[in-house]
Design a protein that fits this description.
The structure holds 2 protein chains of 2 kinds.
Chain A: H1 6-9, H2 20-26, H3 53-60, H4 75-88, E1 92-96, H5 99-110, E2 116-120, H6 125-134, E3 141-145, H7 150-156, E4 161-167, H8 179-188, E5 193-196, H9 201-204, H10 207-210, E6 214-218, E7 232-236, H11 242-245, H12 249-252, H13 263-267, H14 271-283, H15 290-301, H16 303-322, E8 327-331, H17 341-347, E9 355-360, H18 363-373, E10 378-379, E11 389-391, H19 403-408, E12 415-419, H20 425-439
Parallel strand pairs in A: 2-3, 2-4, 4-5, 5-6, 10-11
Antiparallel strand pairs in A: 1-7, 6-7, 8-9, 9-12, 11-12
Helix pairs in contact in A: 2-4, 4-15, 5-14, 18-20
Chain B: E1 2-5, E2 8-13, E3 25-29, H1 40-48, E4 52-56, H2 72-85, E5 91-96, H3 98-109, E6 114-120, H4 130-137, H5 141-151, H6 168-178, H7 183-193, H8 197-202, E7 208-213, H9 225-230, E8 234-239, H10 246-249, H11 251-261
Classes of the chains: A alpha/beta, B alpha/beta.
Amino acid sequence: MGLGLSTRVSAMKKPKTFSFDTLSLHAGARPDPSTGARATPIYQTAAFAFRDTDHAASIFNIERAGHVYSRISNPTNAVLEERIAALEGGVGAIATASGQAATHLAIATLMGAGSHIVSSHSIYGGTHSLLAYTLPRFGIETTFVNPCDIEAIRAAIRPTTRLVFGETLGNPGLDVLDIPRVAAVAHDAGLPVLVDATFTTPYLSKPFELGADLIVHSATKFLSGHGVVIGGLLVDSGRFDWEGSGKFPTLTEPYVGFHDLDFVEEFGPAAFITRARKEGSRDFGACMSANTAFLILQGMETLPIRMHRHVANTRKMVAHLDAHDAVDWVAYPELPSHPGYALARELLPRGCGAVFSFGVKGGRSAGQRFIEKLEVFSHLANVGDAKSLVIHPASTTHHRMDTAALEAAGISEGLVRMSVGLEDAGDLIADIERGLRASQKG
Amino acid sequence: MECLIDGRSAYVGTGGWEIDVARESVVFVHGAGQNHTIWVLPTRHFVRKGFNVLSVDLPGHGRSAGPCLSSIEQMADWIAEVVRVAGLPRACLVGHSMGSLVTLATAARHPDRVRALAMVGTAAPMPVHDALLATAAANDHTALDMLILWGHSSTAHLGGSPTPGMWMLGCGLRLLEEAGKGVVHADLTACNAYADGLAHATQVACPTLLILGERDAMTPVRATHALVAAIPTVETVVLRGSGHALLVERPDPVLDALIRIV
């Protein structure tokens, strides 16, 4: 006996472990030890009782595993956090009140006033608002660049830069983020890459395997999958060399807010996610409710099946619209006409998600007539629902962006964004046909 | 703290406290390819309780200068030197996996330096399959995958981390990935070559505690019987359900057991 039982290593193949589909259902969850409940219980409690004063001190001092207060950790949330970390191949995760909260938690853990971010300009409007308008008030500046222009990313990096940020598929033009090349540029400069992988989920893309260091999700979207909760997730790869970079004193110098704890020295690969929890969750308080975590877990159990169907339906919608006389253009990276076509074939072989945009002939008014005639598609500001959704970004999600910013983000006034759901594809095409006929009658 | 051991820079985590020779001391020794961070929970406990804590990075690991030492005996002598350089008369030694062999050899070769011994996830001998050694020699990532997947119980492959929000397999793999090229192979070779474990066990003069995982596939409980029989004063704790990665699968019971011996 010893390190590697002879009977088990004789073939010298990588030992088997559980597949993505199995982890989607089980990772982090065990039958409840006290009741036998098979579903993950909703631990609807603010706080957790200590055995005695020394036990309390040991949990506060991070000597023992356990929960203190649901703002910082909760058993239901912990299952969700472990599950996304397993699916992404990270070391750990934190569930937050929203995707925006996850992005803020990542940034606030890494930097303070005087810092700078290089961000893709093709991002969710809410994230653009955070970076462009709100964080400057706290001394954090952002330079927006074309995510497809690697040299522009390199050129935008300053001595004060602390983060490179982008979305796996840019919102709404679906610019495919070349994560390996972006990561190479960032790592050369001693910087981590934070990727918003909301549109792809770990079913379609594994950003850590491509070189990203941190991931955020709006779990509101495909992960929960049913449009019933708001939630976010921040995942740590554990791979970035914070000490080698020398740019992250929050992780490599004693933290007076936790008895001079040096997170890298004591927690190694778990330094970032531990600091984010022990400081960010504690102080900013943007926690997820246990009930929300339960609902997201329910969604994640069927993530592989849903994403497969989402992509299959989307391909049918894209093909139909791309051949339609009433449509000017369709932007989907699986079409040869999309600038990210070749990159998508390389980085997103399982599909490019279920969100795409197209232009109805006739511009803004035709687009409005199209949307208003739809019966199955719902007109609202969300994506990633089991139900099909549609929106006009220039007047909704991106309405704070001026014309120049809209143009830079690839958003025309007539652009319609669709999030394709799980309905029968024939019914969806019939709905689209109804809308397109109306669009051309103006 | 940084110190010089045999002329080379060595890292010894102390929890940020100065060594006080008037206090009792505990030395923690990590396993193959790992570093001091695996001991973060117990070290923080014993610092709070007023012990001198010395959580080492063996040569070539973590923050300690290389190269790696090539035998368990060399590592044992190195640990004894750490205790001497720290100005400590003696210490309780705590080791996991390869580190447990190092502490066993230290207790046998330097009995005057060792007050008590705790061996976590251990067996002696600790042979390593030739094919795993060859895979590690090639710096093939598969060797790390093997160590992580066999190093955790099958239950842990589905998670259930006691530490909220952490994916145990990911944490373990990332720690091994941080090791430099050749480190895992050097450590596994040292474990495989250590033939004097049972002889050393008979020479252990201090109280000894073995902390074992019920579902440890790498150092199974049944492989410790000879070791238990050889150590003069020994107690064994078997943690239900745990694999070889006891420090992440069952951190609180490990700490409870350590409190009894430290």
